[in-house]
């Protein structure tokens, strides 16, 4: 047992040193995208731009004169964001047009629908003759434990009702399909639609996937959300190997402020402390997203301490699980309620 503990401690020390070494390496080999692509010529598509982090990212790019295309399903909100971007761009001294195309455009579309994404691609080809940066910031939330989605409650060793009937199972499948559509199918359709355009028309093609810490660290009540976000995270990581000419960045924040959870596909309620007081600020996450694209970063965890979260899960799994249960106010009769020791 002592040898096992010593070995685990050794691996832990080595693991903790990896982020530091990688940080030093990135500093020595810092990528400056602006040397290939001036900021005011960059063509940026933001999926999920009508609110939250996507909206904040659109504001940043508009303020520095980039050409910005904002996409979302909600027309009224999207038009508002487009007007905000035009105003920010004008205030910063940039004209309405750049290189023969409008500096700010918007397309009402669902990124999980094939016809909609073809329309988006056609708009980019028509207006800008290409694309430099794809930001995938759209997604959906799900907040219930999986058995609760099926209407089954556990008390001790008993389930009420004893089993999920056909209706309950069908409901679970439908809710899961909605989560898959927003968190996996959408990113998949976006990638297949736009990778060739990015690769052939940009001097520095880049893609950013806004993911979540829940995609790599399991948590109760986030069963559907975490698993579907994890699927798109793995999808884009694999794509980064298949398309080495495109820079892929991934941002995985912990809880972020805002009303993203209000429209959970499973109708679940927020269980953690108020995200609007405890969560990361949208503008902070947005700035880090843009920086990741500008500087060629890979996976970025927010806050930065979460870069070690996967190592912590390996080294101290019971503690990480206990913290996740505490955060989401989740308990079971079988769970250990004492704080696990390292």
Automatic annotation (TrEMBL):
<dbReference type="InterPro" id="IPR036291">
    <property type="entry name" value="NAD(P)-bd_dom_sf"/>
</dbReference>
<dbReference type="Pfam" id="PF00106">
    <property type="entry name" value="adh_short"/>
</dbReference>
<keyword id="KW-0812">Transmembrane</keyword>
<keyword id="KW-0560">Oxidoreductase</keyword>
<protein>
    <submittedName>
        <fullName>NAD(P)-binding protein</fullName>
    </submittedName>
</protein>
<dbReference type="GO" id="GO:0016020">
    <property type="term" value="C:membrane"/>
</dbReference>
<keyword id="KW-1133">Transmembrane helix</keyword>
<comment type="similarity">
    <text>Belongs to the short-chain dehydrogenases/reductases (SDR) family.</text>
</comment>
<dbReference type="GO" id="GO:0016491">
    <property type="term" value="F:oxidoreductase activity"/>
</dbReference>
<dbReference type="InterPro" id="IPR002347">
    <property type="entry name" value="SDR_fam"/>
</dbReference>
<feature type="transmembrane region" description="Helical">
    <location>
        <begin position="6"/>
        <end position="24"/>
    </location>
</feature>
<keyword id="KW-0472">Membrane</keyword>
